Write the structure tokens for this entry.
Amino acid sequence: MPQGFNLNFGGSTKPGGAPATKKDFSQYFSLYVGNLSNITFDQDLYKFFSSRGYKLAGAKVMFDRETSQSKCFGYLNFHSQEEAERCLAEQNNAKIDNKAIVLNKKKDGDFDRSANVLALNLPKEMDQNALNGLFKEFGNIKSTKLEVFKDGTSRGF
């Protein structure tokens, strides 16, 4: 059975006021997309990855139900595991709306929280790709996230 997960984007109704049915994403292979700009929407994600040759089943940016503000993360759904893995390998740290995105697989039961590293006092000129490259020699890097100011410059961690 494919490794995917169900997402309920909720809050919608069918015509006539009946609740919408939960959309089943279990047949898809999904990637988490983090560090999105608050001006990035579903269609922006879909166009970005489709224009780079990825065959998507869909793209979804998550929003707060109360404030209607972007949560600055979303999901990409693929028809095959190979396509999702290719995207993960090639597009992690790509820039969308001037922000370096973070791609991750769904965290499974063997996720080790103690494997995270906080790096401080990084050079202000360092970008997301340089941070990733800095630690590559120590093993497989699942993801990196460089904290930045609104103008895109590094906050040094």
